[in-house]
Amino acid sequence: MDFNGYKRTKKFDIKRWFKGTNSIIYLVILVVMVLGLAFVLKTVIGMHNSNKNADEVTQEETTDVSRQETDTQTQTVARNQSYYIRISTAKHTLVVYQLDNNNEFTIPVKAFKVALGPKVEPAKTAISEKSVWRKITDIYYVRYSSRLDNAEYLSTATYYSQSDNNLNPKSYNMIGQNVTEGSILMTCANARWIYENCGAKTTVEIVDDFDISSDIKVEDISRIADNAYRDPTDVK
Prior knowledge:
Elements: E1 2-3, E2 6-7, H1 14-19, H2 21-80, E3 83-88, E4 93-99, E5 105-113, E6 115-116, E7 123-135, E8 141-148, E9 153-156, H3 169-173, E10 184-186, H4 188-197, E11 203-207
Parallel strand pairs: 3-11, 9-10
Antiparallel strand pairs: 1-2, 3-4, 4-5, 6-10, 7-8, 7-11, 8-9
């Protein structure tokens, strides 16, 4: 019915809607949606709590592993710091000393000849890190390298490549003298012994000279042929 050009709006009968058959279906759908939403919310909260607990457990495990690794490293360093290395640049000789009963480094363990590079100078330093192979120039490598805090390193004579059978025989035969490439060079056996037995922070003292007791036997160096490309002390 129109009143003065306006249409009368039909009121929505809520009571009648609830009494209709469709209202039951709508109500069921609404209940299902509410239950579904509650389930999803509960699942999300549960997943969040599970991830939080897992992260806490992982952090605890990581802390335990880190602590164990630190303890292991500490034990290794402590066990490997019973040595003290002294090098005489005048004699081209390296002597390894071990602790005595008075906790002094007086017991000689090894003594052998070394070649000294052009930059080796007197210093009191320590082993900082190690590498099985180290490239020192564009064409030369060394093995069993123990790097020192003063940037020098203890290692084998030079190699032409990272191959046990590609030794530079000239470099090897210069052990006991000064060399133009490398740092503090020695035989493979001696470099490997230091690499395996002297841990990080082991003191290395480089001096002009010091007295070496006559009781200390300095290892002899056997020269090799110019076409020999394997260190004779490299025994596996």
